[in-house]
Amino acid sequence: MIKKVGIITAGGDCPGLNAVIRGIVKTAEYAEVETYGFLEGYKGLLENRYIKLDSSITSDIIAKGGTILGSNNKTNTFAIPVKKENGEIELVDKSYEIADRLKRENYDCLIVIGGDGSLKSARDYTRRGINVIGVPKTIDNDVPFTDTTFGFYTAVEIATEAIDRIKTTAESHSRVLILEVMGRYAGWIALAAGIAGGADTVLIPEIPYKLEAITNKIEQRKRRGKNYSIIVVAEGAKPVDGEMTIKATVEGSPDSIRLGGAGDFLAQELQKLTGNETRSTLLGYIQRGGDTGPYDRILSTEYGSMAMQLALEEKFNVMVTLLNGKLTYVPLDDVAGPDTKIGEQSSNIKNVPMDSVWIQTARRIGICLGDE
């Protein structure tokens, strides 16, 4: 019978994380299960830093953005850099020590709230004999086997408001304005916000773009008397025969690539080709911060409560999911990719399919997707 559960929030912060924690804790309290939150994600798990959770801590956090437990996206417990006596750096697998400690301290289950990389590590801990339940977290909406990840719709609301705001400046100054949003390998945010905000062009990682297609759209609008254009570009969008714009790499991180600059690159190219004054705005972390929207508060609570319920039913090594409109679960092994080795980064990403209703809608209403 389940008596003690650990919780970590891993990877980037996301609207709804606190609501998930609250859903877990409230459900656990009714079942007289103790919950402990490890601080700063896998880093806190490595260092055994945690707090005991109860309703006195979680009762008023449903709307609060970020995570009361803190997070970290640089700690890979399967490859921790350790300095040897000769000064060389050696990567050491600390997961065995962590798993042994969790067992000694009588944790019946570890609930990992995270995105693709964090859930891949969660799957790896099942291989160390730990009972794990995953909860899909990312504003990018790119975790497989889910209709929607929590945090996504709040991010879309923020991006849509940004489009509404830059549109007035674009119209006033007859400019081409570009909004760069998050979305490394999947363009869900860009596509949804682009449709909702009335953008003229939306560029996503799934469809490499042609500069000619974008300039044609700008010129088409000019002929119709519209001397401004709004372009939404996902950070991972790239030109045909080109590469993603990488800002930096972080050594030792399970998520080492840092993107940035796709909007600036596009602005420079379009200004040269069209002569239009072109500016880029990077929305950045604004998409992830602030209060959680109502839909994500509900979805997060559902996910948290369901995760705890699965623990009570001893249905382990799975991820909670909203699939075909129903709350259910899928094996963590499927989420991570069954052929992905321990310690490797997951590449099992949910991309925007080309037959997506959003793709079809965008094309029907004349949004340029950069390919035609």
What global shape is seen? Answer: elongated
CATH class bucket of the largest domain: Alpha Beta
Oligomer: single chain
Total strands: the figure is 15
Distance between the termini: 59 Å
Percent range for β-strand residues: 15-25%
Structural class: alpha/beta
In the CATH scheme, what's the topology name of the largest domain? Rossmann fold
Rg: 22 Å
Indicate the CATH architecture of the largest domain.
3-Layer(aba) Sandwich
Number of helical segments with 4 or more residues: 12
Query: How many domains, in number, for the residues?
Result: 2
Order of helices and strands: EHEHEHEEHEHEHEHEHEEEHEHEEHH
Spatial ordering of strands, largest sheet: 3-2-1-6-7-14-15
Averaged pLDDT:
91
Residue windows where pLDDT falls under 50 for at least 5 positions: none
Summarize the main sheet: 7 strands, mixed
Q: Estimate the helix proportion, in percent.
A: 25-40%
Explain what you see.
By secondary structure, the protein is α/β, with parallel strands linked by helices. The chain has 2 domains: 4-150 and 292-336, Rossmann fold, CATH 3.40.50; 154-289 and 354-364, Rossmann fold, CATH 3.40.50. Helices cover 36% and strands 20% of the residues. The protein contains 12 helices and 15 strands. The chain has helices spanning 17-30, 42-47, 55-58, 95-104, 116-126, 152-173, 188-197, 211-223, 262-274, 294-312, 332-336, 357-364, and strands at residues 4-9, 34-38, 50-53, 80-83, 89-92, 109-114, 132-136, 176-181, 201-203, 229-234, 246-249, 257-259, 278-282, 318-323, 326-331. The strands form 4 sheets. It has a 7-stranded mixed beta sheet, with helices on both faces. A 4-stranded parallel beta sheet has the order 9-10-8-13, with helices on both faces. Strands 4-5 form a two-stranded antiparallel sheet. Strand 9, helix 8 and strand 10 form a beta-alpha-beta unit. Helix 8 (211-223) packs across helix 9. The N and C termini lie far apart (59 Å). The model has no long low-confidence stretch (mean pLDDT 91).
